[in-house]
Design brief:
This protein is 41% helix and 24% strand. By secondary structure, the chain is an alpha+beta fold. It folds into three domains: 3-79, Orthogonal Bundle (Multidrug-efflux Transporter Regulator, Chain: A, Domain 2), CATH 1.10.1660; 82-115; 121-272, Multidrug-efflux Transporter 1 Regulator Bmrr, Chain A. The strands form two sheets. Strands 4, 5, 6, 7, 8, 9, 10, 11 and 12 form a nine-stranded antiparallel beta sheet that branches. The chain has a three-stranded antiparallel beta sheet with strand order 1-3-2. A hairpin with a 6-residue loop joins strand 2 and strand 3 (48-50). The longest helix is centred in the middle third of the chain and has 30 residues, at 83-112. The N and C termini lie far apart (87 Å).
């Protein structure tokens, strides 16, 4: 194909906008951020020209942006625009939307002083236990990835060194964690035997304690009703005149991955001075 024919196949940015139903401004922006560069830019006029085969890609970019997919993720998606990747991305968004819906429901109860979900608060004595732990400063949005990844790493380290995990894990919240401010969270896996610390993993003894706790289902964790459980245990301590004696925590005792949403899998627990 000669140069004249090559030029005749190109679309001006205006024609590209008409064919893709994108604005000229949007096309310029997608070029500037590297998501949809034109086929050719005139070095004198700066005019952008596109190939006809770029129309399909441009329409895909527009549709992905209608889903509010961030531009950085759009660029990654375009490297392999498969249905499986789209499903995986959307499942993540559904998880986020579900948590936001749960937070809205929680706030509606708090703002209206309506009746929150009922949780049966009980007490128990917990013996001292040896734990392998990792502590980190994280944002709220990072908890869903940090906790399971850290738990898996600790369990692998314990098994590799001949230790035996007890069968549950603790997630201790040493400070408030928000979407904007990092807080300190500690993931602990109790074990028997002896292991050597490695990298950021430490080994310590979580002291014996008296706990007030409320039992929570997997579904209540996913839709943030667990926040009401934290409130219920804190309220129980106040009403009974008890002082906290350690960080509030989640105790995961059930098989999370295989549990149904109706299955009880975690306790919200507050150590306190009897």
């Amino acid at each position: 194909m000669d140069e004249a024919s090559d030029r005749s196949d190109r679309l001006t940015i205006g024609e590209m906008a008409r064919r893709t139903r994108l604005t000229v401004k949007a096309l310029r922006w997608y070029d500037e951020v590297g998501v949809l560069p034109p086929d050719h830019v005139d070095p004198v006029t700066g005019y952008r020209f596109y190939r006809p085969e770029q129309v399909t890609k441009a329409r895909l970019v527009g549709l992905l942006r209608e889903l509010d997919m961030p531009l950085a993720e759009v660029a990654q998606f375009l490297t392999d625009p498969s249905p499986a990747r789209l499903r995986a991305w959307w499942q993540e968004q559904e998880t986020v939307l579900r948590r936001r819906a749960g937070l809205v429901a929680y706030l509606q109860v708090k703002l209206s002083e309506g009746a929150p979900p009922m949780f049966d608060v009980r007490t128990r004595e917990v013996a001292a236990e040896q734990v392998a732990t990792v502590s980190a400063q994280v944002l709220q949005s990072e908890l869903n990835s940090f906790i399971p990844a850290t738990s898996t790493r600790l369990r692998k380290l314990i098994a590799a060194q001949g230790g035996h995990e007890v069968g549950h894990e603790l997630v201790l919240y040493h400070s408030m964690i928000t979407p904007d401010v990092e807080g300190t969270v500690e993931v602990c896996v109790p074990f028997t035997g002896t292991i050597e610390p490695a990298d950021d993993v430490t080994v310590r003894v979580e002291p014996a304690r008296t706990e007030a706790f409320a039992r929570v289902t997997k579904g209540q964790v996913l839709n943030l009703e667990i926040m009401h459980a934290f409130d219920a245990v804190a309220r129980w301590l106040r009403e009974h005149g008890h002082q906290m004696a350690g960080a509030p925590r989640e105790v995961y005792f059930g098989p999370w991955d295989t549990a149904k949403e109706s299955d009880e899998v975690v306790d919200v627990a507050f150590p306190f001075v009897p």
